[in-house]
Fold this sequence. Notes:
Layout: E1 2-5, H1 9-19, H2 28-38, E2 41-49, E3 52-64, E4 68-73, E5 83-84, H3 87-104, E6 108-114, E7 122-124, E8 128-133, H4 138-144, H5 147-158, E9 162-166, H6 171-185, H7 192-201, E10 206-213, E11 216-226, E12 229-237, H8 239-242, H9 246-260, E13 265-271, H10 276-282, E14 287-290, E15 292-297, H11 314-321, H12 325-336
Parallel strand pairs: 4-6, 12-13
Antiparallel strand pairs: 1-2, 2-3, 3-4, 3-5, 6-15, 7-15, 8-13, 8-14, 9-10, 10-11, 11-12
Amino acid sequence: MKVEICSEPDHWDTYVKTVGIGHTAQRWAWKQAIEETYGHKGYYWVATEGSAVQGVLPLVLIESRLFGRFLVSVPFATYGGVLASNQEAREKLLAAVTELAGKLDVSHVELRQGEPSDCGWVDVSPKVAMVVPLTPNPKDIWGALSSRLRNKVRKAEKEGLRWQWGGKEAVDDFYSVFAVNMRNLGTPVYPREWFLNLCRFHPENSQILILRDGDHPVAATFVTWFGDMVELPWIASIAEGQRKYATELLYWTVLKWAAERGFRRLDFGRCTPGGGVHRFKQQWLCQEERLHWYYWLAPGIPVPKLRPDNTSYRWAIKVWQHLPLSVTNRLGPHIVRSIP
């Protein structure tokens, strides 16, 4: 079996699509968007036997003055890691990665595998994905929601909130909500170009949903899909919309949309059990799926904690929340490129 850096994107995407357990962030388009937006270098490994692909492993090198050099599969996403048809392919891909880690002198490699794996690396899994099993009839889902939640959706509709789907032309409206929401959370914001490039490189698998109060965007989500699952990696709302239950209407609109189109699962994104976001998502019939992220560590290196919710950053979060939006929008993209 041969393991090398992939030079044929079409073969890569065909394998990710047909293997049946892949995610949208493991597609070649994600590599293109990352390299175009952040300038990070992708190392996309493929295992082949003859002309047949037996496994893939997408990796991106992050280089930061603050946090050093490390490899991630896949940054700015919940899922990544190894996709393999057999154990031999998996082992050879992981061996190639550890060899590359030594050559690049990185501190660690992070595999956002999602599902449990016997890779032998350090398993860290403090987060859960909140996934809703979908039925073809949205009325079944609606009827299973609590009456309290259904009333909030109805109130949002009575307030005159309206939804609108779009592609890259909707990025500015999405970003106007997203940037405010991230500043209020005390988290550096992604660059606007990140979302433009995601729309640009795989427009057939991504859309943006905007909720408006009149002409004013008050809630929004970036929607991606692959196979039978829809993912909402970024959901945001502002105070004006939250008072009118815009977030509830946003969630229901996506649920209904996904069910009507025959998708089987809807991933509302990752969160920490016990937190406010976790409690909000629980009411949407979510099943909690523990997310397993695995680490290869250089000698003497502890498991990294480069997460915005790290309590060590509590003081920085409080400062960030009180900065003008013009400042956070300018500084955030430079910081977040190193905190994937």
